[in-house]
Write a structure and sequence with these properties.
The chain has 15 helices and nine strands. The chain is of the alpha/beta class. The protein folds into two domains: 216 residues, Rossmann fold; 153 residues, DNA Methylase, Chain A, domain 2, CATH 3.90.120.10.
Length: 404
Amino acid sequence: MGKLTFIDLFAAPGGLSLGFEMAGFRCLAAVDIDERAMLTFRHNFPEATAIVEDVTRLTSEDLLKRAGVKASDVDVIIGGPPCQGFSTVGRVKIASLVREGIWSLSNSHPRFIDDPRNVLYREFVRVVAEIKPKAFVMENVPGMMSYRNGEIVKQILEDFSRIGYRAEARVLNAVWFGVPQMRKRIFFVGTRLRDAEILWPQPECMEPEEAVVKLDAFFGGSGMKRPVTVWEAIGDLPEPVQGRPGLSDWPIEYDKPPFSDYQKWAREGSDRVHNHITRQHNERDIRVFSIMREGMWWKDLPEEIRRLYGYRDDIFHDKMKRLRSDRPSWTVVAHLYKDGYMYIHPKQPRTITVREAARLQSFPDKFIFRGSRTDQFKQVGNAVPPLLARAVAGCVRRMLEASE
């Protein structure tokens, strides 16, 4: 079998694509509406066709034409379509949408996945149905699995079944696969090949609490590795460039050797550090950061310090959070670009840089982010961790190769 191929929908900045390329796939084309995030995709995947377009306005025929390929050339379609409505919609909201004429019901028991805000999910199903790849991979937020006793997941699996795909869904934690971050995502994997067995990756690393209890993990007795910590991820990076308005990148030299396997992996193919620029902090912030211990939250600060900011404790209890160097990071969220205080460096009085956030997401240093620094933070927070994507992609590859 030659190199397997894929098309990535909702692709930017490229975490899912990078994981699939790591697993031996080749990206034919990628689509995303975010023009600035696609600057990053184009830079890191120069051989793929990068299409800046609203998927709802892109026919499958046009997608294939612009990529210069036939439908039969596409082995897998991947993507993470936003599903904004499933977690909040209820019967009251549905009734409101009906009254406003936004949604018309064909029966008295509407499907929650058909909320108008989930239109991009339906576009993913449409493209899969029209191109008919051998398999697909769709990722999303893990709340789908528990919402209304799994009703959303059941509806999604039914939709893929209607277009001829056997599919399964599973929640995976990025930390299981060497990502220095606790980040759960749900993956839907499907295939139209009758003899193909859907495979899932097995965890390679323990979660932090298990590693603390099962000390034999540190000595290899359990067969499972301990999780990669924040310091094992970022501790070798040089002092960052001091931020100033308009500065989005300033490559700097490595100034110390790597001291963990993760750092050695992250530095492969890179001779300098990109996207390693600090945010600008005022003296008050720097003073407060300096007194915070590792793992400390806003709620743990003395009252006289909290009064300096004026935030409500009942709403902003996690307004400030200092990372622990000896544990994986908590989830790097999409609004990282707004809430830098939630990711204070474990040893320095500052918030983390884009490169440090990228390391926590398992982007190697050779993956360079484009756009403004705000754009870069947003891209990192929105991305699928590449090492998590690689684990899923490896299973898809074995599944397809076994069916040949």
